[in-house]
Amino acid sequence: KRGQKAYVFANIFFQAYDTKQPVPDVSAEVRKQALEVKATAAFTRTESVIDSTKGKALADLAYTLNPQMPVSDYQQVDDGFIVLHLLSITPSQQKSFDTVHSQVETDYLNFLTVSRVQEQAKSVAQALKASLAQGKTWKDATAQLGLKPQTLPPLVPAKTDDQKSSPLAQAASGWAAKTKPGSISDPVRSPSGAAILYLAARENISEAERALLQLTLRPQLEQMRQEQVLNDWISGQFKNGKTNIPPEVLGLNRNNS
After folding, report:
1. What is the DSSP letter of 69?
2. To 10 degrees, the CA torsion angle through 42, 43, 49, 52?
3. Which single residue of 12, 82, 187, 200 could bond 121 by disulfide (Cβ 3.0 to 4.6 Å)?
4. pLDDT tens digit string along 88-105?
5. Alpha-helical runs (H) found in 134-202
6. b (16+ CB within 10 A) / e for 103-140
7. Which has the closest alpha carbon to 35: 87, 81, 99, 95?
């Protein structure tokens, strides 16, 4: 019943939005339906004061509201349902030049460092590919450039949980699945800046192992495909103006349903 009550309340305003009619008086509608009102202090997108485990998502939703559309659609929260109402917008406070300059300088220097590492890694990758093309082994090619390769543990596509903690292992697994032994990758991001991958070998699996792998992967692939289709639909609803709820908020509700 609470969900139905929240829907009826929010629908009053969405009908006004759709028909380009003046927005009804929120206070009057609240009194008419005897709804509980909770006011919050002003908050930013990164510092939400909304008392809910979904505070971050609700703060994102609040930032989609404006004076022409001040009431949100209803959302389920820990203890029932909530409808957000925009009371006012406080202009952001300006930061001092010194503060902004310091932040921009730090970000720019980090960007330059990463860019230079990426460019150097590209040159190294080209040199390694040239050495292998001349018949040198991976060990000799890396030694010639003064590199000390690190060996990653065997990567198994079906055992992705073991590799989630390492972004580099995830990148290596995806790349290795699409290439042949003896190949060198283009530079990929790593915790230290950039990495170049070399696929030393790929073990053939037995038919029994292949069948088991397919059984393991099929549900994962089907779930990924279903989630992608639904996420595309949710994003389309938001982009086409059929809802003012951000895709991440809709996705949050779906994941908790």
Report:
1. B
2. 110
3. 187
4. 887 777 777 777 778 778
5. 138-144, 167-176
6. eeeeeeeeeeeeeebeeebeebbeebeebbeeeeebee
7. 81
Closest-CA residue to 149 (of 189, 199, 202): 199
**Using CB atoms within 10 A of its CB, is residue 42 exposed (0-12), middle (13-18) or buried (19+)?**
exposed
Q: Which helix (H) or strand (E) element contains residue 100?
A: helix 97-133
Q: Which residues pair with 82 in a beta bridge?
A: 75
Per-residue model confidence as pLDDT tens digits over 213-248 = 677 777 777 777 777 777 777 777 767 766 666 655
Tokens linked to 49: 């004061």
> In 3-state terms, the chain is what percent helix, strand and coil (to 5)?
50, 5, 40
CA nearest to 20, candidates 235, 250, 234, 241:
241
Residue 207 Cα to chain centre, angstroms: 37
237 CB-contact burial (10 Å; exposed 0-12 / middle 13-18 / buried 19+) = middle
